[in-house]
Amino acid sequence: GSLEEVFLPYHESPVFREIPGLSSDFISTSSNLSVLSTADGMAQSLIWITAQGLFYGEMLPRPNSHQDAILTDTKLIPFPTQPLHSVIRELLPSELMFEIPADVHLTPFHFLVLWPSSFQPLSPISLSLVDSQDFSTATGPQSTLKAGEIFKGFVHDRASHTLWIHSARSVFEI
Questions:
Q1: What is the 3-state secondary structure (H, E, C) of 72-115?
Q2: Which stretches within the chain are classed as H helix?
Q3: Residue 147 pLDDT
Q4: Quick check: helix, strand or coil at residue 39?
């Protein structure tokens, strides 16, 4: 034989997909990853906030040693349109004058996108907006968010099968 046979696996490189993350002192996406698991605890799919949108992929149940990938059916979904929240506008550098979701959560039926003052479920099939709930429109004692308050993220209680959104001062069940 020749050395070509030895190096052939390296010549046929695996599929590589680079997705830029968010690089800003004001935004951290290390926790903006949501994994949906099966009843037995196996990871089934994931969704992650990136600089270009929501990255989604189905996880292979048991990849074999000949597979380089653990994800299949990957999609990069553009962020749904959302008006820039005034509190965020003051904090962001001028090059980031678009709003980035505060968090994302995966359910068996929806991609849930949390913005600083609203919540939007997306259909995983059509990738369209199912609903939009704005929490900054009410004023006075009926207001969900107080002046200057923004949502920070989701919390999933697996024991009671409930989902919560929180700000720095409040927690709400959805």
A1: EEEEEECCCCCCCCHHHHHHCCHHHCCCCCCEEEECCCCEEEEC
A2: 3-11, 86-91
A3: 76
A4: coil
165, 145 contact by CB (below 8 A): no
The total number of residues shown for the chain amounts to 174
pLDDT digits over 20-77, tens only?
666 554 455 445 778 888 777 788 898 888 878 888 988 877 656 556 667 888 888 8
Least confident of 85-94, 126-135, 138-147: 85-94
- How many C-beta atoms surround the C-beta of residue 152 within 10 A? 16
DSSP 8-state class, residue 140: G
Do the Cβ atoms of 53 and 76 come closer than 8 Å? yes
Q: CA geometry: angle at 42 spanning 155 and 65, to 5°?
A: 135
**Residue type at 25?**
D
